[in-house]
Amino acid sequence: MLVNLGMEIGQKVKVIRLRDRVSGQLVDKLGKEGTIKEFKMTDGSGIGAVVEFADKTATWFFGDELKPVE
């Protein structure tokens, strides 16, 4: 499934920035790589990606917080 983020489910991505919602656990994901598991509507006007990491945790990110890993 391709979405306007230019990414697809199963693709490896890296967290390159965080917007304003910052918890300690989320800060730990900055610079980490994970796999896109699904897409979801963020606030009715955008699409975010749910990313799963090697430690089996998952959270969603805005598209501009992620960069595809090549």
TrEMBL record:
<dbReference type="Pfam" id="PF11061">
    <property type="entry name" value="Tsr0524-like"/>
</dbReference>
<dbReference type="InterPro" id="IPR021291">
    <property type="entry name" value="Tsr0524-like"/>
</dbReference>
<protein>
    <recommendedName>
        <fullName>Cytochrome B6</fullName>
    </recommendedName>
</protein>
